[in-house]
Amino acid sequence: MHTRRHALSASAKLALLLLGAGVLPAAAQAQAAGFNQAAFDAKSLADVMKALGASAPAASGDVTVSAPDIAENGAVVPVGASSLLPGVKRLLVLVEKNPSALSAIFEVSEMVDANFSTRVKMGQSSDVYAVAMMNDGRVLYAKKEVKVTLGGCGG
Amino acid sequence: MADPMRIRAQAAGDKVTVRVLMAHEMETGQRKDAAGKLIPAWYIQQVHAKLNGKDVLSAQWGPAVAKNPFLQFTVRGAKAGDKIAISWIDNHGDTRSDEVVVG
User: Contact B59/A115, CB-based, under 8 Å?
Assistant: First the structure.
């Protein structure tokens, strides 16, 4: 009688232990170093600039954003950002009405052209921005409106 | 380990156009599964490109980059026979590196 009660409580403790061990690794999530979480959490163009420590952006014809006029599928929208100006430090791709505006940051080196193409998700019709951060501190942008027929952020 | 990337690098003059197709879910952390629970975010955060072992490009990506991401860029001063290496790291700490010879 005494041994049975003992065995029951022992197995209950063991179950608790196993549960705890299974849950813990999921909570501990590795974060890559050098990733600017604040900028990617920012909701608007102004907030992204603040998180990156940049000045207010000015519209410029020297920055080009290429995107379709109408995107049938918001889950895959081809977007290109480029600039022919010398001295581009970073190129950013932003989608204004996404839950987080910033999509991608490209660090331009002397070895690559300031010309990148990728594909982004868009939750709804919105302006797409290409922002060029220059070595001399200027921040230039170009924008284009993209109409999305089917959003890419819903479940 | 994730599936390999598909990389194509083509030389034209003194420039090389590199096209990369990565295999990754790029889960935003905003979608819900059939039971209504949020699917945790899982996306590539950083991408690095090297030419013959020398860093030429680094990028930071958010969850808004599309599933199975595509990336195109142009490397200056590269020629056929050079090696282009691409690597990424996602928010779980998983990484993948692949290398291709410029054709």
Answer: no
Contact B62 A102 (CB under 8 A): yes
Pick the CATH number of A37-150 from 3.90.1720.10, 3.30.1950.10, 2.60.40.2470, 3.40.50.300: 2.60.40.2470
| Local confidence pLDDT in tens for the 103 residues of chain B | 578 899 999 998 889 999 999 999 999 988 888 898 999 999 999 999 999 999 999 999 999 999 999 999 999 989 899 999 999 999 999 999 999 999 8
CA atoms in the 13 A half-sphere facing the CB of A30: 12
Summarised one tens digit per residue, pLDDT across range A67-84 is 999 998 889 999 999 999
Flag whether B76 is in a domain: yes
Residue of chain B nearest A38, judged by CA positions: B62
The total number of structural domains in chain B stands at 1
Q: Which residues of A touch B65 (CB under 8 A)?
A: 103-104, 118-121
pTM: 0.80
The answer to the question of residue B1 being in a domain is: no
b/e per residue, B55-94, with b = 16+ CB within 10 A? Answer: ebbbbbbbbbbbbbbbbbbbbeebeeebebbbbbbbbeee
